[in-house]
Design a protein that fits this description.
Blueprint: H1 2-7, H2 12-28, H3 31-44, H4 50-63, H5 66-75, H6 81-93, H7 97-106, H8 112-124, H9 128-140, H10 147-154, H11 160-172, H12 180-193, H13 196-205, H14 211-223, H15 227-239, H16 246-259, H17 262-274, H18 281-293, H19 297-305, H20 312-324, H21 328-340, H22 347-356, H23 362-375, H24 381-393, H25 397-406, H26 412-424, H27 428-441, H28 447-460, H29 463-477, H30 483-495, H31 499-508, H32 515-527, H33 531-543, H34 550-561, H35 565-577, E1 586-591, E2 594-599, H36 608-624
Antiparallel strand pairs: 1-2
PPR repeats: 111-145, 210-244, 311-345, 411-445
Protein name: Pentacotripeptide-repeat region of PRORP domain-containing protein
Pfam families: E_motif, PPR, PPR_2
Amino acid sequence: MSSYLKKAHVNKASLSYCSQLIDRCLSFKSFDFAKTIHGHLFKLGFNAHTYLGNRCLDLYSRFGTSDDVLQLFDEIPQKNCISWNICLRGLLKSDNLDTALKVFDEIPEPDVVSWNSMISGYASCGYSDYALEMFSKMQLQGVRPSGFTFSILLSTVSSACHGKQIHGSMIRSGLSLSNVVLGNSLIDMYGKLGVLYYAFGVFLNMEELDIISWNSLISGCFNSGYGELALDQFYSMRYSGYSPDEYTISIVINACTKLRNLDKGKQVFALSVKVGFLSNSIVLSATIDLFSKCNRLEDSVRLFEQLDRWDYAVINVMISTYGRYGFGEVALELFQLMLREDIRPTEFTLSCVLSSIPIPPVEHGSQFHSMAIKSGFDSNAVVASSLMEMYAKTGSIDSSTEIFVKLDKRDLVSWNTIMMGLTQNGRAAETLDVFEELLEEGLPPDRITLAAVLLACNYGGFVDKGMLVFSAMKEEYGVMPGEEHYACIIDLLCQAGQLGKAIDITSTMPFQPGCSIWESILRASAIYGDVKLTENVAERMMDLQLPSPLPYSLLTQAYAMRGRWEAIVRVKKVMRKNGINKVTGCSWIGIKNRIYTFNAGELQHHGGQKIYLVLRLLTWEMEDEGCVYLECDKLDVEGR
């Protein structure tokens, strides 16, 4: 190569040969090779040629850094529009938006490719507003947008109004909406926004369809909450002679999962086996999730165990499955096995395993936190929220607060997690302070946010604040109160002794009060000695056949205090008839790698002999110190 370049002259043959060498660099994807070629061209002065300079610039924009791109760009004496566009692409590839904007402003006459590069750069970095602003400037400059311009814009739209405006611009620009790429982009956009009428309108007016068109329509139906409609479109697609791909199968199985339709889900899975998609991790993950959510855990486990190869997608859904059924320790073991198999966990893996363990031991929590930092996921909002929730469960709410403060980008899930954590750890006043910060940030609260605030008011006894927030839910925050919100505010009023107000609110509810609401009123009536109200509420709960033992136990206590023994017998008889069992309380403690659960009234326990022997030793020590808190003499060594 070197000897040839030394003898070559700047003519068509040498240019062609040098271009072939650059093509070879692109195929090798080697930056070192690219620098070698560039060095020879520079030595012989070929880099001053605009065409070869652009080709080398293209190499550096693909494999080099922003500084390399800018340095080589400056070496091209006669830059054309292609030179500017390649430089822009290289800078935007490195997410160097500020420098790219400066370069763009220096372009003598930016063409549609230049504008598209800037619009795409802003869109890929999540700055959809800037992308739309750049599109407006493009039109003011008289540059006609291309189909690619609109494809970029459609991927950034977040409201139906903006989507319709871009759709109108496409029509005014004279672009053919029968173009399959543009049509698919429109269907996908309207589907994501839930405007199915327009999605179907575009779909039915397209002259040519492909599998992406059908996938976009089916996905739009599913994401908009119309699972049955998604299945109908899948049947129509099959009837029209189109063969589904892996993405089609996964969407349809997810629709069956949401509908809890196991029979149709199994049929779709059988089709995926028939067409050869059994090894696809997306299809397998969706199928495992289908079996799991349709109460077929054994089928999920059987399918997972038959796999020859694991990947993070399948493991993530299996960890979530074990967690859903309360097998947190099995989920943790699977995560450890995943690490031994050298499968790198993703941010969703960490989030799944943290959510699967009810209350992880402190040492496990610290290990997960360290792993998140080492993997670079500690700043990820999903992982950070899971870590905050984990620390809140273990009572380390200060650690949760520390993670929240260090977050650069806080989504609503992060705010909700820290607020709920503070509330559950008895720091209700701090929850209200965080809520005020959220409103100052301009983030609109959702149902979970307001449930956390009302729960904080309940725990803190802030009646006035609770009533203020509850009254403003619909008008100010645009959230219709649900059962969880009514339960919080009614329990708050009951604890404050305002039973009349609480009962008045139940009469204005747009739906029938649930078990938790009646339980709050029932407890308050029993506390304040209103036997008549206790009887009325208890009878109402019995008539509704709510699965709660509370009305029976409170009636029994109220009758026992007044010596109404015959009434007690009748209550217990009704309780047995309705099959109501008393709820057993429990506590648990984590020791090393195991979590031990202790149920109230439990006569025997695994390892009980050792537990009670240690308990007896502790009692002897306390007796020596002159204080006895437990009477263990009544317990034998078997723990009975």
